[in-house]
Design a protein that fits this description.
The protein is built from one helix and seven strands. The protein is mainly beta.
Length: 145
Amino acid sequence: MADLNKVFLIGNLTRDPECRYTPKGTPVGDLSLAINSSYRSQDGQVKDEVCFVEVVIWGRQAETCKEYLQKGSLIFVEGRLQMEQWETKEGEKRSRMRVRADRIQFLGKAKGSSQPTPVESSSTKTDTAFSPPEEPQAGDEEVPF
């Protein structure tokens, strides 16, 4: 049986992105995401629920997030779950589950801008926006097969 570890999230940042660097100079970013949802309880009342998720990003994406995002920014995260384990100075074992982002897409407005930004932060993509192909017009002479 095959394994799958894939996460897709859309939410708002709960704080400004942080960016630090490893001793070798690789950028590492930390984001905190709030994902809101609502549901109707058995007694008919609408209940709101918030899920907080920690996200880590590596490379140029971390710098881009630090530059263009701020608390409250709406983002789409594509990544995978990652378990981290460590031991404190007192010898206690700790662990946490975070999302390791492979791709971040900005869905809201850029810092200091009133216009939405179509910027996508990805190490493999350079397109900044998607344009759907033109629909063929009636009377076009080419047959599309």
